[in-house]
Batch of 2 targets.
Target 1
Amino acid sequence: MTCQLTHRYNPDFSSLPDDQSKFNGRHKCAGCAYDEGRRLGSEKSPMLSLDYSQLPDSQAGTVRHKSVQAAFAKGYYDGVLTSY
Ligand SMILES: [Zn+2]
Protein backbone atom coordinates (compact mmCIF):
# COMPACT_ATOMS: atom_id res chain seq x y z
CA MET A 1 0.00 0.00 0.00
CA THR A 2 1.32 3.40 -0.98
CA CYS A 3 0.00 6.65 0.45
CA GLN A 4 -1.69 8.88 -2.13
CA LEU A 5 -2.76 11.67 0.24
CA THR A 6 -1.71 15.26 -0.35
CA HIS A 7 -0.08 15.47 3.08
CA ARG A 8 2.93 13.88 1.42
CA TYR A 9 3.72 17.36 0.08
CA ASN A 10 2.98 19.31 3.26
CA PRO A 11 5.99 21.62 3.77
CA ASP A 12 5.54 21.34 7.56
CA PHE A 13 7.03 17.86 7.36
CA SER A 14 10.28 19.10 5.87
CA SER A 15 11.44 20.06 9.38
CA LEU A 16 11.20 16.48 10.64
CA PRO A 17 14.49 14.67 11.14
CA ASP A 18 15.64 12.30 8.47
CA ASP A 19 15.55 8.62 9.30
CA GLN A 20 16.97 6.10 6.92
CA SER A 21 16.89 3.17 9.31
CA LYS A 22 15.11 0.26 7.75
CA PHE A 23 14.06 -0.92 11.21
CA ASN A 24 12.31 2.28 12.18
CA GLY A 25 9.58 2.78 9.67
CA ARG A 26 11.76 3.72 6.75
CA HIS A 27 9.70 4.36 3.64
CA LYS A 28 6.54 4.57 5.73
CA CYS A 29 4.44 7.67 5.35
CA ALA A 30 5.31 10.21 8.06
CA GLY A 31 2.17 12.14 7.11
CA CYS A 32 -0.02 9.19 8.07
CA ALA A 33 1.97 8.76 11.31
CA TYR A 34 1.35 12.45 12.04
CA ASP A 35 -2.39 12.15 11.37
CA GLU A 36 -2.70 9.14 13.67
CA GLY A 37 -0.77 10.94 16.42
CA ARG A 38 -2.94 14.01 16.01
CA ARG A 39 -6.10 11.94 16.26
CA LEU A 40 -4.92 10.33 19.50
CA GLY A 41 -3.80 13.70 20.85
CA SER A 42 -7.12 15.42 20.17
CA GLU A 43 -8.78 12.61 22.15
CA LYS A 44 -6.08 12.87 24.85
CA SER A 45 -5.83 9.17 24.52
CA PRO A 46 -4.25 7.63 27.64
CA MET A 47 -2.87 4.79 25.56
CA LEU A 48 -0.50 5.54 22.74
CA SER A 49 0.44 2.98 20.22
CA LEU A 50 1.21 2.99 16.56
CA ASP A 51 2.01 -0.08 14.55
CA TYR A 52 4.49 1.29 12.06
CA SER A 53 4.18 -1.81 9.94
CA GLN A 54 0.53 -0.86 9.29
CA LEU A 55 1.35 2.55 7.84
CA PRO A 56 1.21 3.05 4.10
CA ASP A 57 4.48 3.39 2.28
CA SER A 58 5.59 6.69 0.88
CA GLN A 59 8.49 7.56 -1.33
CA ALA A 60 7.17 10.93 -2.35
CA GLY A 61 7.25 14.58 -1.40
CA THR A 62 8.38 16.09 1.88
CA VAL A 63 7.67 12.98 3.98
CA ARG A 64 10.23 10.90 2.13
CA HIS A 65 12.72 9.34 4.52
CA LYS A 66 11.40 11.34 7.45
CA SER A 67 11.17 9.97 10.97
CA VAL A 68 7.74 8.44 11.53
CA GLN A 69 8.41 8.49 15.29
CA ALA A 70 8.98 12.24 15.25
CA ALA A 71 5.96 12.73 13.00
CA PHE A 72 3.75 10.70 15.34
CA ALA A 73 4.99 12.61 18.41
CA LYS A 74 4.49 15.99 16.72
CA GLY A 75 1.01 14.95 15.65
CA TYR A 76 0.13 13.93 19.18
CA TYR A 77 1.42 17.22 20.55
CA ASP A 78 -0.48 19.26 17.97
CA GLY A 79 -3.60 17.21 18.64
CA VAL A 80 -3.40 17.86 22.37
CA LEU A 81 -2.99 21.60 21.71
CA THR A 82 -6.16 21.66 19.62
CA SER A 83 -8.11 20.21 22.54
CA TYR A 84 -7.53 23.31 24.71
ZN1 LIG B 1 0.30 9.33 4.20
Target 2
Amino acid sequence: MCMNKNVVILGAGIAGLNSGIELLQKGHKVTLIEKNDNVGGLCSGYDINGFYIDACLHWLMGTRKSNKLYKLWNNIDALNDEVKIISLDNFVTVDYSGTKIKVGRDLEKTRQEWLSIAPEDKRNINKFFQVVNAMDKVMSVALKCKTKKSLSDYFKVAYKSPSIIKSMTMSRKEYAKRFKNPALRFAITNMMTGYNNMFFLFDVYSLFSQGNADVPSGGAKYMIERIKNRFLSLGGNLILNDEVNGIEMKNDKVFAVKTSQNHIFYPDVVISTFDPRYMLKNLLDSKYQINKINKANQRINKNPISSCFNVYVTIEGDISMIDGPTLINIDPIKVGASDIDYLLIRPYNFDPQYFVKDNKTVVSLFVDQNHLDYHYFASLDVEELKIEEEKIANNFIAALIKKYPELEGRVNILTYFGPIELEKRANTSYGALQSYSLTDLNSFYFAEGKVKGIKNLYCCGQWTRSIGGTPTALLSSHKIVKKI
Ligand SMILES: Cc1cc2nc3c(=O)[nH]c(=O)nc-3n(C[C@H](O)[C@H](O)[C@H](O)COP(=O)(O)OP(=O)(O)OC[C@H]3O[C@@H](n4cnc5c(N)ncnc54)[C@H](O)[C@@H]3O)c2cc1C
Protein backbone atom coordinates (compact mmCIF):
# COMPACT_ATOMS: atom_id res chain seq x y z
CA MET A 1 0.00 0.00 0.00
CA CYS A 2 1.24 3.52 -0.86
CA MET A 3 1.84 5.51 2.35
CA ASN A 4 1.00 9.16 1.78
CA LYS A 5 4.04 11.27 2.49
CA ASN A 6 4.52 14.90 3.27
CA VAL A 7 6.85 16.08 0.51
CA VAL A 8 8.52 19.48 0.34
CA ILE A 9 9.90 20.48 -3.06
CA LEU A 10 12.51 23.20 -3.35
CA GLY A 11 12.15 25.34 -6.49
CA ALA A 12 9.21 25.65 -8.88
CA GLY A 13 10.81 25.35 -12.30
CA ILE A 14 9.82 22.56 -14.69
CA ALA A 15 11.38 19.88 -12.45
CA GLY A 16 9.68 21.14 -9.28
CA LEU A 17 6.30 21.54 -10.94
CA ASN A 18 6.46 18.16 -12.66
CA SER A 19 7.53 16.25 -9.56
CA GLY A 20 4.87 18.11 -7.56
CA ILE A 21 2.05 17.19 -9.95
CA GLU A 22 3.13 13.56 -10.28
CA LEU A 23 3.38 13.19 -6.48
CA LEU A 24 -0.07 14.73 -5.96
CA GLN A 25 -1.42 12.28 -8.52
CA LYS A 26 0.06 9.47 -6.42
CA GLY A 27 -1.75 10.79 -3.34
CA HIS A 28 1.11 12.50 -1.51
CA LYS A 29 0.86 15.88 0.19
CA VAL A 30 3.07 18.44 -1.60
CA THR A 31 4.43 21.85 -0.67
CA LEU A 32 6.36 23.66 -3.39
CA ILE A 33 8.61 26.53 -2.29
CA GLU A 34 9.79 29.10 -4.83
CA LYS A 35 11.96 32.15 -4.23
CA ASN A 36 10.56 34.20 -7.14
CA ASP A 37 7.14 35.84 -7.36
CA ASN A 38 6.02 33.25 -9.90
CA VAL A 39 6.80 29.71 -10.97
CA GLY A 40 8.78 28.68 -14.07
CA GLY A 41 12.39 29.32 -13.10
CA LEU A 42 14.49 29.49 -16.25
CA CYS A 43 11.44 28.60 -18.34
CA SER A 44 9.61 31.93 -18.06
CA GLY A 45 8.06 34.72 -20.10
CA TYR A 46 7.53 38.32 -19.03
CA ASP A 47 5.41 41.38 -19.80
CA ILE A 48 7.64 44.39 -20.43
CA ASN A 49 6.49 47.88 -21.44
CA GLY A 50 3.24 46.56 -22.87
CA PHE A 51 4.93 43.74 -24.83
CA TYR A 52 5.41 40.09 -23.99
CA ILE A 53 8.76 38.30 -24.28
CA ASP A 54 9.38 34.57 -24.13
CA ALA A 55 12.62 34.37 -22.16
CA CYS A 56 13.10 30.67 -22.84
CA LEU A 57 11.58 28.46 -25.50
CA HIS A 58 13.33 28.29 -28.85
CA TRP A 59 12.05 24.77 -29.24
CA LEU A 60 10.37 22.27 -26.95
CA MET A 61 11.39 18.65 -27.29
CA GLY A 62 8.34 16.37 -27.22
CA THR A 63 5.79 18.28 -29.31
CA ARG A 64 4.96 15.21 -31.43
CA LYS A 65 2.00 13.37 -29.93
CA SER A 66 3.41 9.87 -30.35
CA ASN A 67 6.56 10.81 -28.40
CA LYS A 68 7.08 9.66 -24.81
CA LEU A 69 7.90 13.20 -23.74
CA TYR A 70 4.58 14.48 -25.13
CA LYS A 71 2.75 12.20 -22.68
CA LEU A 72 4.69 13.72 -19.79
CA TRP A 73 4.06 17.29 -21.01
CA ASN A 74 0.39 16.43 -21.49
CA ASN A 75 0.13 15.01 -17.98
CA ILE A 76 1.10 18.40 -16.52
CA ASP A 77 -1.01 20.28 -19.11
CA ALA A 78 2.01 21.96 -20.73
CA LEU A 79 0.69 20.58 -24.01
CA ASN A 80 -2.85 19.53 -24.76
CA ASP A 81 -5.20 19.28 -27.72
CA GLU A 82 -6.15 22.96 -27.45
CA VAL A 83 -2.58 24.27 -27.48
CA LYS A 84 -1.56 25.21 -30.99
CA ILE A 85 1.87 23.88 -31.88
CA ILE A 86 3.74 26.16 -34.25
CA SER A 87 5.95 24.40 -36.79
CA LEU A 88 8.37 26.80 -38.43
CA ASP A 89 9.55 25.98 -41.96
CA ASN A 90 13.18 26.38 -41.03
CA PHE A 91 15.19 25.49 -37.95
CA VAL A 92 17.21 28.52 -38.94
CA THR A 93 18.14 30.47 -42.08
CA VAL A 94 21.84 31.20 -42.21
CA ASP A 95 22.80 34.39 -44.00
CA TYR A 96 26.56 34.40 -44.34
CA SER A 97 27.62 37.61 -46.11
CA GLY A 98 24.67 37.27 -48.46
CA THR A 99 24.86 33.49 -49.05
CA LYS A 100 21.62 32.08 -47.66
CA ILE A 101 21.48 28.52 -46.37
CA LYS A 102 18.17 27.23 -45.12
CA VAL A 103 18.23 24.53 -42.46
CA GLY A 104 14.77 23.34 -43.37
CA ARG A 105 12.17 20.98 -41.96
CA ASP A 106 12.11 19.03 -45.23
CA LEU A 107 15.42 17.16 -45.10
CA GLU A 108 15.55 16.07 -48.73
CA LYS A 109 14.70 19.54 -50.04
CA THR A 110 17.33 21.00 -47.72
CA ARG A 111 19.95 18.49 -48.86
CA GLN A 112 19.26 19.41 -52.49
CA GLU A 113 19.53 23.12 -51.69
CA TRP A 114 22.82 22.64 -49.86
CA LEU A 115 24.16 20.63 -52.82
CA SER A 116 23.27 23.40 -55.25
CA ILE A 117 25.01 25.99 -53.03
CA ALA A 118 28.11 23.88 -52.33
CA PRO A 119 28.53 21.08 -54.92
CA GLU A 120 32.18 20.84 -53.84
CA ASP A 121 30.94 19.46 -50.49
CA LYS A 122 28.69 16.76 -51.96
CA ARG A 123 30.19 13.83 -50.03
CA ASN A 124 30.05 15.55 -46.64
CA ILE A 125 26.59 17.04 -47.23
CA ASN A 126 25.24 13.56 -48.00
CA LYS A 127 26.92 12.12 -44.88
CA PHE A 128 25.46 14.92 -42.75
CA PHE A 129 21.91 14.14 -43.86
CA GLN A 130 22.49 10.39 -43.56
CA VAL A 131 23.14 10.86 -39.83
CA VAL A 132 20.27 13.33 -39.33
CA ASN A 133 17.92 10.82 -40.97
CA ALA A 134 19.12 8.01 -38.73
CA MET A 135 18.79 9.96 -35.47
CA ASP A 136 15.07 9.25 -35.02
CA LYS A 137 15.73 5.56 -34.49
CA VAL A 138 18.81 6.22 -32.39
CA MET A 139 17.09 8.59 -30.01
CA SER A 140 14.02 6.48 -29.38
CA VAL A 141 16.34 3.78 -28.04
CA ALA A 142 18.85 6.15 -26.45
CA LEU A 143 16.11 7.72 -24.31
CA LYS A 144 15.57 4.32 -22.71
CA CYS A 145 19.24 3.99 -21.70
CA LYS A 146 19.52 4.46 -17.99
CA THR A 147 23.27 4.72 -17.59
CA LYS A 148 26.19 6.25 -19.43
CA LYS A 149 27.54 2.77 -20.20
CA SER A 150 24.29 1.48 -21.71
CA LEU A 151 24.10 4.62 -23.82
CA SER A 152 27.61 4.30 -25.14
CA ASP A 153 27.15 0.55 -25.77
CA TYR A 154 24.04 1.41 -27.68
CA PHE A 155 25.88 3.83 -29.94
CA LYS A 156 28.55 1.24 -30.65
CA VAL A 157 25.88 -1.17 -31.86
CA ALA A 158 23.68 1.38 -33.64
CA TYR A 159 26.59 2.85 -35.57
CA LYS A 160 28.97 0.09 -36.39
CA SER A 161 31.13 2.65 -38.13
CA PRO A 162 33.63 4.27 -35.72
CA SER A 163 33.90 7.22 -38.09
CA ILE A 164 30.24 8.11 -37.50
CA ILE A 165 30.62 7.80 -33.74
CA LYS A 166 33.70 9.99 -33.99
CA SER A 167 31.89 12.61 -36.04
CA MET A 168 29.05 12.68 -33.53
CA THR A 169 31.37 13.39 -30.65
CA MET A 170 33.24 16.17 -32.45
CA SER A 171 32.74 19.82 -31.66
CA ARG A 172 30.67 21.59 -34.28
CA LYS A 173 33.63 23.80 -35.16
CA GLU A 174 35.88 20.79 -35.72
CA TYR A 175 33.25 18.95 -37.78
CA ALA A 176 32.59 22.07 -39.87
CA LYS A 177 36.21 22.08 -41.05
CA ARG A 178 35.43 19.21 -43.42
CA PHE A 179 33.26 21.55 -45.53
CA LYS A 180 35.02 23.68 -48.14
CA ASN A 181 32.18 26.18 -48.47
CA PRO A 182 32.67 29.00 -45.89
CA ALA A 183 28.92 29.61 -45.50
CA LEU A 184 28.33 25.94 -44.68
CA ARG A 185 31.24 25.95 -42.24
CA PHE A 186 29.75 28.99 -40.50
CA ALA A 187 26.28 27.43 -40.50
CA ILE A 188 27.33 24.12 -38.94
CA THR A 189 29.41 25.85 -36.28
CA ASN A 190 26.81 28.37 -35.16
CA MET A 191 23.33 27.23 -36.18
CA MET A 192 22.46 25.89 -32.75
CA THR A 193 22.77 27.61 -29.38
CA GLY A 194 25.10 26.26 -26.70
CA TYR A 195 28.36 24.34 -26.75
CA ASN A 196 27.13 20.81 -27.34
CA ASN A 197 28.80 18.62 -29.95
CA MET A 198 27.60 17.38 -33.34
CA PHE A 199 25.53 14.64 -31.70
CA PHE A 200 23.24 17.23 -30.16
CA LEU A 201 22.98 19.17 -33.41
CA PHE A 202 22.09 16.01 -35.36
CA ASP A 203 19.59 15.13 -32.65
CA VAL A 204 17.83 18.49 -32.40
CA TYR A 205 17.70 19.00 -36.15
CA SER A 206 16.32 15.49 -36.58
CA LEU A 207 13.67 16.11 -33.91
CA PHE A 208 12.77 19.42 -35.55
CA SER A 209 12.37 17.75 -38.95
CA GLN A 210 9.92 15.27 -37.36
CA GLY A 211 7.81 17.96 -35.67
CA ASN A 212 9.15 16.92 -32.30
CA ALA A 213 10.94 20.16 -31.38
CA ASP A 214 8.40 22.87 -32.16
CA VAL A 215 6.95 25.74 -30.14
CA PRO A 216 3.67 25.90 -28.24
CA SER A 217 1.77 29.08 -29.11
CA GLY A 218 2.11 31.69 -26.37
CA GLY A 219 5.53 30.34 -25.37
CA ALA A 220 6.88 29.86 -21.87
CA LYS A 221 4.61 32.12 -19.80
CA TYR A 222 1.35 30.55 -20.94
CA MET A 223 2.75 27.02 -20.80
CA ILE A 224 3.94 27.57 -17.24
CA GLU A 225 0.59 29.08 -16.25
CA ARG A 226 -1.17 25.90 -17.42
CA ILE A 227 1.25 23.73 -15.43
CA LYS A 228 0.81 25.88 -12.31
CA ASN A 229 -2.98 25.60 -12.59
CA ARG A 230 -2.74 21.82 -12.85
CA PHE A 231 -0.59 21.76 -9.68
CA LEU A 232 -3.05 23.96 -7.78
CA SER A 233 -6.13 22.10 -9.04
CA LEU A 234 -4.70 18.88 -7.60
CA GLY A 235 -4.46 20.53 -4.17
CA GLY A 236 -0.75 21.40 -4.17
CA ASN A 237 0.46 24.02 -1.71
CA LEU A 238 2.46 26.71 -3.54
CA ILE A 239 4.57 29.19 -1.60
CA LEU A 240 6.01 32.06 -3.63
CA ASN A 241 8.50 34.83 -2.79
CA ASP A 242 10.14 32.63 -0.20
CA GLU A 243 13.74 31.48 -0.47
CA VAL A 244 14.83 28.26 1.17
CA ASN A 245 17.80 29.29 3.29
CA GLY A 246 18.41 26.37 5.60
CA ILE A 247 18.15 22.61 5.83
CA GLU A 248 18.35 21.17 9.32
CA MET A 249 19.56 17.61 9.72
CA LYS A 250 18.77 15.13 12.49
CA ASN A 251 20.85 11.95 12.32
CA ASP A 252 20.91 11.01 8.63
CA LYS A 253 17.66 12.71 7.62
CA VAL A 254 16.45 16.19 6.75
CA PHE A 255 14.48 17.24 9.80
CA ALA A 256 13.41 20.77 8.83
CA VAL A 257 13.45 23.12 5.85
CA LYS A 258 13.68 26.82 6.68
CA THR A 259 12.89 29.83 4.52
CA SER A 260 13.60 33.56 4.32
CA GLN A 261 9.98 34.29 5.36
CA ASN A 262 10.66 32.32 8.57
CA HIS A 263 8.57 29.36 7.56
CA ILE A 264 9.69 25.98 8.90
CA PHE A 265 8.58 22.72 7.31
CA TYR A 266 8.99 19.24 8.76
CA PRO A 267 8.82 16.98 5.72
CA ASP A 268 9.00 13.20 5.33
CA VAL A 269 10.77 13.69 2.02
CA VAL A 270 12.55 16.66 0.37
CA ILE A 271 13.17 17.08 -3.37
CA SER A 272 15.63 19.76 -4.37
CA THR A 273 15.30 20.84 -7.99
CA PHE A 274 17.65 23.79 -8.35
CA ASP A 275 21.36 23.66 -9.00
CA PRO A 276 22.70 21.01 -6.57
CA ARG A 277 26.05 22.79 -6.29
CA TYR A 278 24.25 25.89 -5.02
CA MET A 279 22.05 23.79 -2.74
CA LEU A 280 24.92 21.78 -1.22
CA LYS A 281 27.12 24.84 -0.73
CA ASN A 282 24.51 27.15 0.76
CA LEU A 283 22.08 24.89 2.58
CA LEU A 284 24.05 21.90 3.81
CA ASP A 285 27.29 20.90 5.49
CA SER A 286 30.17 20.61 2.99
CA LYS A 287 30.54 16.89 3.82
CA TYR A 288 27.54 16.16 1.57
CA GLN A 289 28.51 16.02 -2.08
CA ILE A 290 27.30 14.65 -5.40
CA ASN A 291 30.41 13.19 -6.98
CA LYS A 292 29.12 13.03 -10.55
CA ILE A 293 28.28 16.72 -10.55
CA ASN A 294 31.61 17.58 -8.93
CA LYS A 295 33.34 15.64 -11.69
CA ALA A 296 31.33 17.39 -14.40
CA ASN A 297 32.25 20.70 -12.82
CA GLN A 298 35.93 19.80 -12.78
CA ARG A 299 35.72 19.23 -16.53
CA ILE A 300 34.00 22.56 -17.18
CA ASN A 301 36.66 23.81 -19.60
CA LYS A 302 35.96 20.74 -21.75
CA ASN A 303 32.22 20.67 -21.14
CA PRO A 304 31.20 24.31 -20.72
CA ILE A 305 27.85 25.31 -19.35
CA SER A 306 25.61 27.21 -21.75
CA SER A 307 24.47 30.69 -20.92
CA CYS A 308 23.56 33.58 -23.19
CA PHE A 309 23.36 37.28 -23.76
CA ASN A 310 19.88 37.99 -25.03
CA VAL A 311 18.58 41.37 -26.19
CA TYR A 312 14.85 41.83 -26.83
CA VAL A 313 13.72 44.62 -29.15
CA THR A 314 10.59 45.67 -30.96
CA ILE A 315 10.80 46.43 -34.65
CA GLU A 316 8.17 48.69 -36.14
CA GLY A 317 6.62 47.93 -39.52
CA ASP A 318 7.65 45.39 -42.13
CA ILE A 319 10.19 42.77 -41.04
CA SER A 320 9.78 40.38 -43.95
CA MET A 321 13.51 40.75 -44.74
CA ILE A 322 14.13 38.53 -41.67
CA ASP A 323 12.72 35.19 -42.78
CA GLY A 324 12.16 33.33 -39.49
CA PRO A 325 15.00 32.50 -37.06
CA THR A 326 18.10 33.82 -38.80
CA LEU A 327 21.81 33.49 -38.11
CA ILE A 328 24.05 36.23 -39.51
CA ASN A 329 27.79 36.78 -39.44
CA ILE A 330 28.87 40.09 -37.92
CA ASP A 331 32.11 41.99 -37.32
CA PRO A 332 33.42 40.52 -34.04
CA ILE A 333 32.16 42.18 -30.88
CA LYS A 334 33.21 41.49 -27.31
CA VAL A 335 30.49 39.92 -25.20
CA GLY A 336 31.74 38.98 -21.74
CA ALA A 337 35.12 37.33 -22.30
CA SER A 338 34.29 36.14 -25.84
CA ASP A 339 34.75 37.64 -29.27
CA ILE A 340 31.47 36.89 -31.03
CA ASP A 341 31.14 36.90 -34.82
CA TYR A 342 27.49 35.88 -35.20
CA LEU A 343 24.03 36.94 -34.10
CA LEU A 344 20.99 34.71 -33.83
CA ILE A 345 17.89 36.77 -34.68
CA ARG A 346 14.50 35.41 -33.67
CA PRO A 347 11.50 37.37 -34.94
CA TYR A 348 8.38 36.27 -33.05
CA ASN A 349 5.95 37.15 -35.86
CA PHE A 350 5.25 33.39 -36.18
CA ASP A 351 2.91 33.87 -33.18
CA PRO A 352 1.34 37.31 -33.83
CA GLN A 353 -1.43 36.99 -31.23
CA TYR A 354 1.15 37.22 -28.45
CA PHE A 355 4.19 38.93 -29.93
CA VAL A 356 2.97 41.59 -32.39
CA LYS A 357 1.25 44.75 -31.18
CA ASP A 358 0.64 48.19 -32.72
CA ASN A 359 2.52 47.12 -35.86
CA LYS A 360 5.58 46.31 -33.73
CA THR A 361 7.09 42.80 -33.56
CA VAL A 362 9.13 41.41 -30.69
CA VAL A 363 12.52 40.15 -31.87
CA SER A 364 15.30 38.58 -29.81
CA LEU A 365 19.03 38.89 -30.55
CA PHE A 366 20.94 36.04 -28.96
CA VAL A 367 24.56 34.89 -28.54
CA ASP A 368 26.09 32.09 -26.47
CA GLN A 369 27.98 32.69 -23.25
CA ASN A 370 29.86 30.33 -20.94
CA HIS A 371 31.46 30.18 -17.48
CA LEU A 372 34.39 32.39 -18.60
CA ASP A 373 31.98 35.09 -19.72
CA TYR A 374 30.18 34.75 -16.39
CA HIS A 375 33.46 35.28 -14.51
CA TYR A 376 34.14 38.37 -16.59
CA PHE A 377 30.75 39.94 -15.83
CA ALA A 378 30.95 38.89 -12.17
CA SER A 379 34.25 40.80 -11.82
CA LEU A 380 32.48 44.10 -12.65
CA ASP A 381 30.84 46.31 -10.06
CA VAL A 382 27.16 47.27 -10.40
CA GLU A 383 27.78 50.47 -12.38
CA GLU A 384 30.40 48.87 -14.65
CA LEU A 385 28.05 45.96 -15.37
CA LYS A 386 25.24 48.34 -16.28
CA ILE A 387 27.46 50.28 -18.69
CA GLU A 388 28.94 47.09 -20.22
CA GLU A 389 25.57 45.41 -20.76
CA GLU A 390 24.08 48.53 -22.30
CA LYS A 391 27.05 48.74 -24.67
CA ILE A 392 26.57 45.10 -25.70
CA ALA A 393 22.85 45.62 -26.33
CA ASN A 394 23.61 48.66 -28.51
CA ASN A 395 26.32 46.70 -30.38
CA PHE A 396 23.81 43.94 -31.16
CA ILE A 397 21.38 46.52 -32.55
CA ALA A 398 24.12 48.21 -34.58
CA ALA A 399 25.05 44.80 -36.07
CA LEU A 400 21.39 44.16 -36.90
CA ILE A 401 21.02 47.51 -38.63
CA LYS A 402 24.30 47.05 -40.50
CA LYS A 403 22.84 43.86 -41.94
CA TYR A 404 19.39 45.35 -42.59
CA PRO A 405 19.87 49.14 -43.06
CA GLU A 406 16.14 49.54 -43.76
CA LEU A 407 15.52 48.92 -40.02
CA GLU A 408 17.24 52.19 -39.06
CA GLY A 409 15.00 54.19 -36.71
CA ARG A 410 12.54 51.34 -36.22
CA VAL A 411 14.29 49.30 -33.51
CA ASN A 412 13.63 49.86 -29.79
CA ILE A 413 15.16 48.01 -26.87
CA LEU A 414 12.70 46.24 -24.55
CA THR A 415 15.14 44.52 -22.22
CA TYR A 416 18.28 42.40 -22.09
CA PHE A 417 19.89 39.82 -19.83
CA GLY A 418 23.12 37.89 -19.55
CA PRO A 419 24.70 35.36 -17.18
CA ILE A 420 24.47 37.62 -14.10
CA GLU A 421 20.71 38.11 -14.49
CA LEU A 422 20.18 34.39 -15.13
CA GLU A 423 22.11 33.55 -11.97
CA LYS A 424 19.82 35.86 -10.00
CA ARG A 425 16.73 34.42 -11.65
CA ALA A 426 17.30 30.82 -10.62
CA ASN A 427 20.46 30.51 -8.44
CA THR A 428 22.06 28.71 -11.35
CA SER A 429 25.87 28.33 -11.31
CA TYR A 430 27.70 30.61 -13.76
CA GLY A 431 24.33 32.01 -14.88
CA ALA A 432 23.81 28.83 -16.90
CA LEU A 433 20.63 28.26 -18.86
CA GLN A 434 21.65 24.68 -19.55
CA SER A 435 23.93 22.41 -17.55
CA TYR A 436 27.31 20.93 -18.58
CA SER A 437 27.41 20.39 -22.32
CA LEU A 438 28.05 17.18 -24.14
CA THR A 439 31.35 17.15 -25.96
CA ASP A 440 32.30 13.48 -26.00
CA LEU A 441 30.57 10.27 -24.98
CA ASN A 442 32.44 10.26 -21.67
CA SER A 443 30.78 13.46 -20.64
CA PHE A 444 27.27 12.01 -20.29
CA TYR A 445 26.32 11.88 -16.63
CA PHE A 446 23.18 10.91 -14.72
CA ALA A 447 23.17 12.19 -11.14
CA GLU A 448 19.53 12.41 -10.12
CA GLY A 449 18.66 10.53 -6.97
CA LYS A 450 19.47 10.61 -3.29
CA VAL A 451 22.24 12.72 -1.84
CA LYS A 452 24.67 10.24 -0.30
CA GLY A 453 24.38 10.14 3.47
CA ILE A 454 20.90 11.70 3.60
CA LYS A 455 18.02 9.24 3.61
CA ASN A 456 15.16 11.53 2.61
CA LEU A 457 16.74 14.14 0.30
CA TYR A 458 16.48 13.66 -3.47
CA CYS A 459 17.85 15.84 -6.27
CA CYS A 460 16.49 16.25 -9.79
CA GLY A 461 16.31 19.02 -12.40
CA GLN A 462 18.39 20.01 -15.37
CA TRP A 463 21.72 19.99 -13.47
CA THR A 464 21.44 16.31 -12.64
CA ARG A 465 22.02 15.18 -16.25
CA SER A 466 24.28 16.39 -18.99
CA ILE A 467 22.96 18.92 -21.51
CA GLY A 468 20.08 20.16 -19.33
CA GLY A 469 17.12 21.93 -20.91
CA THR A 470 13.44 21.38 -20.24
CA PRO A 471 13.40 17.68 -21.33
CA THR A 472 16.13 16.89 -18.80
CA ALA A 473 14.23 18.73 -16.06
CA LEU A 474 11.09 16.80 -16.98
CA LEU A 475 12.65 13.34 -17.31
CA SER A 476 14.85 13.57 -14.22
CA SER A 477 11.92 14.66 -12.04
CA HIS A 478 9.70 11.93 -13.49
CA LYS A 479 12.34 9.38 -12.54
CA ILE A 480 12.63 10.71 -8.97
CA VAL A 481 8.89 10.44 -8.34
CA LYS A 482 9.07 6.70 -9.05
CA LYS A 483 11.48 6.35 -6.12
CA ILE A 484 9.18 7.96 -3.56
C1 LIG B 1 17.11 32.23 -22.76
C2 LIG B 1 16.83 30.76 -22.52
C3 LIG B 1 16.53 29.95 -23.59
C4 LIG B 1 16.27 28.59 -23.38
N1 LIG B 1 15.86 27.83 -24.43
C5 LIG B 1 15.47 26.57 -24.22
C6 LIG B 1 14.86 25.83 -25.26
O1 LIG B 1 14.67 26.33 -26.37
N2 LIG B 1 14.50 24.54 -25.01
C7 LIG B 1 14.70 23.96 -23.78
O2 LIG B 1 14.35 22.79 -23.61
N3 LIG B 1 15.28 24.64 -22.78
C8 LIG B 1 15.64 25.93 -22.96
N4 LIG B 1 16.17 26.65 -21.93
C9 LIG B 1 16.58 25.94 -20.70
C10 LIG B 1 15.42 25.62 -19.77
O3 LIG B 1 14.69 26.78 -19.49
C11 LIG B 1 15.96 25.03 -18.46
O4 LIG B 1 16.88 24.00 -18.74
C12 LIG B 1 14.85 24.44 -17.59
O5 LIG B 1 13.78 25.34 -17.52
C13 LIG B 1 15.41 24.09 -16.22
O6 LIG B 1 14.38 23.65 -15.37
P1 LIG B 1 14.68 23.17 -13.88
O7 LIG B 1 13.38 22.96 -13.22
O8 LIG B 1 15.65 22.05 -13.90
O9 LIG B 1 15.49 24.37 -13.20
P2 LIG B 1 15.10 25.91 -12.93
O10 LIG B 1 14.27 26.45 -14.01
O11 LIG B 1 16.40 26.57 -12.65
O12 LIG B 1 14.21 25.84 -11.61
C14 LIG B 1 14.73 25.93 -10.32
C15 LIG B 1 13.81 26.81 -9.50
O13 LIG B 1 14.30 26.86 -8.17
C16 LIG B 1 14.15 28.19 -7.69
N5 LIG B 1 15.11 28.38 -6.60
C17 LIG B 1 16.46 28.45 -6.68
N6 LIG B 1 16.98 28.57 -5.45
C18 LIG B 1 15.95 28.58 -4.59
C19 LIG B 1 15.85 28.66 -3.16
N7 LIG B 1 16.94 28.77 -2.38
N8 LIG B 1 14.62 28.63 -2.61
C20 LIG B 1 13.49 28.51 -3.38
N9 LIG B 1 13.53 28.44 -4.71
C21 LIG B 1 14.75 28.46 -5.31
C22 LIG B 1 14.45 29.02 -8.91
O14 LIG B 1 13.97 30.34 -8.77
C23 LIG B 1 13.74 28.24 -9.99
O15 LIG B 1 12.39 28.64 -10.12
C24 LIG B 1 16.39 28.03 -22.08
C25 LIG B 1 16.67 28.86 -21.00
C26 LIG B 1 16.88 30.21 -21.21
C27 LIG B 1 17.16 31.09 -20.01
